[in-house]
Design a protein that fits this description.
mainly alpha; de novo design (two linked rop proteins); 4 helices; 78% helix
């Protein structure tokens, strides 16, 4: 949830003309992280759970990528994406541990 909140805060800093492009993609990827976690909890089979953990981890990478794009096109600074970057890296690390434990 922290990574999602940081991404939403970042999306609010992007230019208005990015509202339906980069901002939207950033929010979609970010909200997908906790959504896939919730869906994994609702699954009974280990393989199903793993798939949703993989999806959530992928969404963390995607969220981070969108934040890095915002820096590259000079909408924000590296410092302004620090929370998103740190939160997403923590999510990725946690998922690597969960996936390893379930595999």
């Amino acid at each position: 949830m922290d990574a999602m909140k940081a991404a939403y805060d970042l999306a609010d800093k992007l230019p208005k003309h990015e509202q339906y492009a980069l901002s939207s993609q950033l929010r979609d990827a970010a909200v997908s992280m906790p959504g896939n976690i919730a869906e994994a909890f609702g699954r009974q089979h280990k393989k199903d759970k793993l798939n949703f953990y993989y999806y959530s981890r992928g969404s963390a990478y995607e969220t981070r990528s969108h934040a890095l794009v915002a820096v590259k096109v000079t909408y924000v600074t590296t410092e302004e994406i620090a929370d998103v970057n740190t939160s997403c890296l923590a999510v990725i690390e946690d998922f690597n541990k969960i996936i390893k434990a379930l595999s």
